[in-house]
Amino acid sequence: EAQVTQNPRYLITVTGKKLTVTCSQNMNHEYMSWYRQDPGLGLRQIYYSMNVEVTDKGDVPEGYKVSRKEKRNFPLILESPSPNQTSLYFCASANSNVDTQYFGPGTRLTVL
Amino acid sequence: GEDVEQSLFLSVREGDSSVINCTYTDSSSTYLYWYKQEPGAGLQLLTYIFSNMDMKQDQRLTVLLNKKDKHLSLRIADTQTGDSAIYFCAESKGGGKLIFGQGTELSVKP
């Protein structure tokens, strides 16, 4: 089944404790992206990647890192999480930057 | 700016038509999308329209695009309770960048 998976689905952590949210797709898509969703703000793009070893900043990259060492995986790293990073995070992938984006189920992160 | 604006709430009765509106700012956007998000789920692409089209129909869904006014709408005919969800419009900026609206929460009452 074609899908985008994210782990974990739920995470509660404390300020400053490094964490990684994994994202994996099985559709051989070149393009992957991370978004955060906050009430009243819609989805805002954090980082995106057009291919392996190619990443670029979205609208809200501060406090986040990503890597794209292989095509199927695009982890989101929070080196020192802060409470303002409490949000719902979505990973997405697409065959190209104008094709349909397929979204993962979301990761709800709470930083205390 | 790069804002995509939507009204936050819409309430309709089952069987009526729903019209969800969206305005965007960038006339160079190539594609415009409508996504649906059900509670606790990710986003599901409903439909999209290329910027050189005025209208696209797909079963109960009709998308209208007014490029002059930078206005996009989604009409859902014969709205059902299963259509209750949050609907997002988004514009493609090219190069992998998507700008989303705030989302419109559609409530369908029996």
Helix content of chain B: under 10%
**H-E order of chain B:** EEEEEEEEEEE
Strand content of chain A: over 45%
Radius of gyration of chain B: 13 Å
Poorly predicted tracts of residues of chain B: none
Distance between the termini of chain B: 40 Å
**Largest β-sheet summary of chain A:** 7 strands, mixed
Question: What is the number of E strands of chain A?
Answer: 11
Shape designation of chain A: globular
Mean pLDDT of chain A: 93
Oligomeric organization of the protein chains: heterodimer
Overall form of chain B: globular
Percent of residues of chain A in helical segments? under 10%
Number of helices of chain B: 0
Tell me the Rg of chain A in angstroms. Answer: 13 Å
Describe the SSE topology.
The complex is a heterodimer of chains A (112) and B (110).
Chain A (H helix, E strand, L loop, with lengths): L3 E4 L2 E4 L5 E7 L5 E8 L3 E10 L2 E4 L7 E2 L9 E3 L8 E8 L7 E2 L3 E5 L1
Parallel strand pairs in A: 2-11
Antiparallel strand pairs in A: 1-3, 3-8, 4-5, 4-9, 5-6, 7-8, 9-10, 9-11
Chain B lengths: L4 E2 L2 E5 L4 E6 L7 E7 L5 E8 L4 E4 L2 E6 L4 E6 L8 E10 L2 E4 L3 E6 L1
Parallel strand pairs in B: 2-11
Antiparallel strand pairs in B: 1-3, 3-8, 4-5, 4-9, 6-7, 7-8, 9-10, 9-11
Describe this protein's structure.
The complex is a heterodimer of chains A (112) and B (110). Chain A has 112 residues and is mainly beta. Chain A has no helices and eleven strands. Chain A has strands at residues 4-7, 10-13, 19-25, 31-38, 42-51, 54-57, 65-66, 76-78, 87-94, 102-103, 107-111. The N and C termini of chain B lie far apart (40 Å). Chain B has strands at residues 5-6, 9-13, 18-23, 31-37, 43-50, 55-58, 61-66, 71-76, 85-94, 97-100, 104-109. By secondary structure, chain B is an all-beta fold. The mean pLDDT of chain B is 90.
